[in-house]
Amino acid sequence: MRYIMRGVLTVRLLSVIAVFSIISGYWLSIDSPPTSEEEDEEAFSQLIMADSPESQDGDSEDGQGSGSGYDDSEREAGYSRSESDLSNNLIVGGASTLGSLLMGSALLEYVRVTVLMALFSPLLANIKSTRDDLLTRGRILGYLEANAGIHFSALRDALGLANGVTAYHLQILESKNQIISWRDGKLRRYAISSLSREEIGRIKNPIVGTRLAILDVLSDSGSLGLSGTEIRKKILISRQLLSHHLSELRKADVIEPSSERKRPNWRLSSMGKEILDNSRKLSISEAAN
User: Fold this and answer.
1) 65 or 132, higher pLDDT
2) Potential cystine with 173: which of 63, 78, 178, 259 (Cβ 3.0-4.6 Å)?
3) Banded pLDDT at 144 (limits 50, 70, 90)
4) Is the Cα dihedral 233, 238, 239, 243 positive or negative?
5) Nearest-10 crossing angle of helices 228-235, 209-219
6) Average pLDDT rounded to a whole number, residues 248-265
7) Closest C-alpha among 288, 227, 289, 238 to residue 262
8) What pTM value is reported for the model?
9) Contact 230, 176 (CB under 8 A)
10) What is the pLDDT of residue 287?
11) Cβ of 31: how many Cβ atoms within 10 Å?
């Protein structure tokens, strides 16, 4: 939760700076508009006149009046250009920051959750809590209890809630220590906080991909298990890759040898059966959404 709040504060700070930069750049562009083409032509004409013989004679008689007048106009034009450049830089910088936040929200779910909590939660927090809010949080808790480890988008779609509403209620529940969340690659996953440490550890590391396929195959073999050759033929992977996955599953106590032979058959351990059940449930619930 501490890391989420840091992210929320960072997003709010960047958003405020970006909006302030855009507004400041806009007002600067109004107060000091860029030099027009007519002003540029006038300045060029003054330069030609300053270099002409008549102008030089006039300068000898009247002092350096004409030259100083041109210098003043040149300085004013340069000042206008510098202000115009500053206003453009402020607008571009602010727009780029907002664009980066939007792009990150579109590509990464954990960024989207942070942005929603930062920008929409304050708006919803000002609305008085109603009975519907309590029912919504109850639905979220019930769904997380049955689908521990589900990610934000799948939870939102399963309950038919809007992005901002989902982020708001999840933030409230997590601030009350009723749920926990963690980052999983591009996703953010959630579970109820009443789970044991062992259960949370298994949920945070679900079996997916090839290893889930290995567990599926072993679950059908019962206590006798299967040899490495039989597993390899069923899931069609190389011997080296299968050896690597079996070694990692063995280290995690997910599988165990079914005999004391040098090349034993492999079967699911009791922990492996629980992890397989959790991984199946999670895969099914997320695939349905």
Assistant:
1) 132
2) 178
3) very high
4) negative
5) 120
6) 87
7) 227
8) 0.45
9) no
10) 65
11) 9
Q: What is the DSSP letter of 18?
A: H
Per-residue pLDDT of 209-255, as tens digits, reads: 788 889 989 988 888 899 999 999 998 888 899 999 999 889 888 89
CB distance 179 to 173 below 8 Å: yes
Residues 115 and 22: their CA atoms lie apart, in Å, by: 19
Can you list the positions of beta strands (E) in 104-243?
150-151, 179-184, 187-192
CA distance 65 to 102: 56
C-alpha 1/C-alpha 170 separation (Å) is: 11
Could you identify the residue written with the tokens 């002092």? 63
Cβ atoms of 22 and 95 closer than 8 Å: yes
Separation CA 91–CA 86 (nearest Å): 9
DSSP 289: -
Q: Give tens-digit pLDDT for 88-98.
A: 777 777 788 87
* pLDDT score of 44 more than 60: no
Phi-psi region of 177 (alpha: psi -120 to 50; beta: other; left: phi over 0): left
Task: Identify the CA nearest to 114 among candidates 156, 155, 158, 170.
Answer: 170
Question: 94: Cβ–Cβ under 8 A, 6 or more apart, which residues?
Answer: 17, 18, 19, 20, 21, 22, 25
Structure tokens at 240: 């080296």
| Tally: H helices and E strands in the chain | 14, 5
HSE, side-chain direction, 13 A CA sphere, residue 139: 16
